From TrEMBL:
InterPro entries: 4pyrrol_Mease, 4pyrrol_Methylase_sf, 4pyrrol_syn_uPrphyn_synt_sf, 4pyrrol_synth_uPrphyn_synth, 4pyrrole_Mease_sub1, 4pyrrole_Mease_sub2, CobA/CysG_C, Siro_Cobalamin_biosynth. Residues 4-215 form the Tetrapyrrole methylase domain. This is uroporphyrinogen-III C-methyltransferase. Residues 267-495 form the Tetrapyrrole biosynthesis uroporphyrinogen III synthase domain. The gene is cobA. It comes from Pseudodesulfovibrio cashew. Pathway: Cofactor biosynthesis; adenosylcobalamin biosynthesis; precorrin-2 from uroporphyrinogen III: step 1/1; Porphyrin-containing compound metabolism; siroheme biosynthesis; precorrin-2 from uroporphyrinogen III: step 1/1.
């Protein structure tokens, strides 16, 4: 079996990666990746995987190709599994063929995992089908940057100029004036539509359509840069009609998600679906307690409580884990009343077979207490399974109402990041538009990692807070959130971002 895999990473959108490619990434021992391979894929690597960057961009080569070839051969002889991850498809202007030849000469078995090439994907995301019955029946992929050591050009400009095929040029922005001029000299009409697509399929994709005669000047005016695909042909006239990706409301907006990684996927996926460039920066991790003796005791004495109030999805999760450890299930709540703070917590309870007796209209402690008092909770025994460290407003207000309250820690939150360097670098590069906070602990931990004085240097970056309690914590650090939704939920937070973007 092969232990070297030449893997196509696709055009950049993680959803365009093949299942086979993901399988190799998850199991490889050594990862050798390129500039155009989405670095997000590296999070799937095993913790012990050796990760080596050999990217090339605009003449800046971390390693020249012959050294990359030597590195692949050297690493493959270790007997470990090597993933050579390349943007797009390894055999479409990816120099995978050269690497394959080196491996054959070294007597090393390898496997090729094809990827979706940018020449098809980028135009599709820009509303341009590379073939269309009303326009053209063929497409030609062409390098826009030939090997400078070649004695003779491989281009046949006469054929390109007279052809009615869609022409897709890779890596050609630097040679755009020459490409346009040669096509016109060899018969392509000056008014032929031309599209330029930068960072195709990614959250920062941009594109525009011009003509052969004017495209070079238009690109210079826009200060257009690589990596870009150039598409030549009448299919480009469909750009405005069929465009879909660049219509996404948060396209290109950099949004920091500070929520715990195990809870962030819903928010992250929603934001990505709306086009945002998501910076995952989980400031907290949700962890089990070191000792569950107190929880087990409370469970065995559960019959003494008239009310159990769950304040979070995590409270439900960890409480039920302990129920299962003891061999019990939801039937233990028979005769009790259950409150859930927030729709997500209520849904988590329903999954366990519990339909909450009370869900407040607003998901802050003061409103919870008001609603519970209307239901006659005064003077009753109340259990609150929650985080080890949390706001004390709810138990304090219930105690004022004469309740006997037991606060039961069932999990704890911990600072997960060691440094804020990644976010500070993104701030400095102008890549961040919003920072989202979903709890007071995410605020506190964020500003422990990112100095408030540093963050103050970027007044254009807006803070989005999930609700008034989180907002008060933000204000404690000297900032005022630009966004606080009426509904203190993740969907409400997303709606706030959309509203802010008009």
């Amino acid at each position: 079996m092969a232990n070297v895999f030449l893997v196509g990473a696709g055009p950049g959108d993680p959803g365009m990666l093949t299942l086979r490619a993901k399988e190799i990434i998850e199991t490889c021992d050594i990862m050798i990746y390129d500039y155009l391979a989405n670095a997000d894929f590296l999070k799937w690597c095993k913790p012990e995987c050796e990760i080596l960057y050999v990217g090339k961009k605009g003449g800046d080569h971390t390693l020249p190709q012959d050294k990359i070839n030597d590195l692949i051969v050297e690493k493959s002889r270790s007997g470990l599994t090597v993933c050579r991850l390349k943007g797009g498809d390894p055999y479409v202007f990816g120099r995978g063929g050269e690497e394959g030849e080196e491996l054959v000469e070294a007597g090393i078995d390898f496997e090729v995992v094809p990827g979706i090439t940018a020449g098809v994907a980028a135009p599709a995301y820009a509303g341009i089908p590379v073939t269309h019955r009303d326009h053209t029946t063929s497409v030609c992929f062409i390098t826009g940057h030939e090997d400078p050591t070649k004695g003779e050009s491989g281009h046949n400009w006469e054929v390109y100029g007279k052809s009615t095929s869609t022409l897709v040029f890779y890596m050609g922005v630097g040679n755009l004036p020459m490409i346009a001029d040669n096509l016109m000299k060899n018969g392509r009409p000056a008014d032929t539509p031309v599209a330029l697509i930068r960072w195709g399929t990614r959250c920062n994709q941009t594109s525009f359509v011009s003509t052969l005669e004017e495209v070079a000047e238009a690109a210079e005016r826009r200060q257009w840069k690589s990596p870009s695909i150039i598409v030549v042909g009448t299919v480009c006239s469909l750009h405005d009609k069929l465009a879909w990706f660049e219509k996404r409301p948060l396209l290109g907006k950099g949004v920091v998600v500070t929520r715990a990684r195990e809870q962030a996927s819903g928010l992250v996926n929603t934001l990505k679906g709306l086009g945002a460039c998501v910076h995952e920066f989980p400031t907290i991790s949700v962890e089990p307690l070191d000792d569950y003796e107190e929880v087990e005791t409370a469970i065995m004495q559960l019959a003494r409580y008239q009310w159990v109030v769950f304040t979070s999805v995590n409270g439900v999760k960890f409480f039920w884990q302990q129920l299962a450890q003891i061999g019990l299930d939801s039937r233990i709540f028979a005769g009790m009343q259950i409150a859930a703070i927030g729709p997500a917590t209520a849904d988590a309870l329903r999954e366990k077979g519990i339909n909450p007796d009370f869900i407040p209209e607003k998901y802050v402690a003061e409103h919870v207490v008001e609603g519970l008092l209307k239901l006659g909770i005064q003077g009753q025994d109340v259990l609150i399974p929650r985080a080890k460290v949390a706001r004390e407003v709810l138990p304090q207000e219930l105690k004022k109402a004469g309740c006997s309250v037991t606060v039961l820690p069932v999990y704890e939150t911990r600072l997960v990041q060691s440094s804020g360097d990644e976010i500070e670098a993104a701030l400095d590069q102008g890549k961040i538009n919003y920072v989202t906070f979903t709890s007071s602990s995410t605020v506190e931990n964020f500003f422990e990692l990112v100095n408030p004085d540093v963050f103050r240097q970027y007044p254009e970056v807006k803070i989005a807070s999930i609700g008034p309690v989180t907002t008060e914590t933000v204000k404690r650090f000297g900032f005022t959130p630009a966004i606080e939704p009426e509904e203190y939920t993740i969907p409400g937070l997303v709606e706030g971002l959309l509203t802010d973007n008009g």
